[in-house]
Design goal:
single chain; mainly beta; four-stranded antiparallel sheet; 8 strands
Length: 75
């Protein structure tokens, strides 16, 4: 995660290979993530996003300085 606001979680997801697709969250565009390439995301509470049709990410809870995410394989 890169930031937590009252209604959204901002994060960078590392990617392997070239290209990416994101559905369900605002974002996109290349970012640096842990020394490699990634994609920037901003996801609101209750959002279920899919990244590269491979990973599902759901924002379960947002607190002042922490967020609860559910991450699992898509599908």
């Amino acid at each position: 995660m890169t930031a937590i606001t009252g209604d959204a979680v901002e994060m960078a997801a590392p990617l392997t290979g070239s290209g990416y697709s994101v559905s369900g969250c605002a974002g996109g565009g290349g970012v640096s993530s842990e020394g490699g390439g990634g994609v920037g995301l901003s996801c609101g509470l209750g959002t279920v996003a899919t990244i590269n049709d491979a990973m599902s990410l759901e924002v379960i809870e947002i607190r002042a300085n922490a967020a609860v995410l559910r991450i699992e394989p898509a599908g």
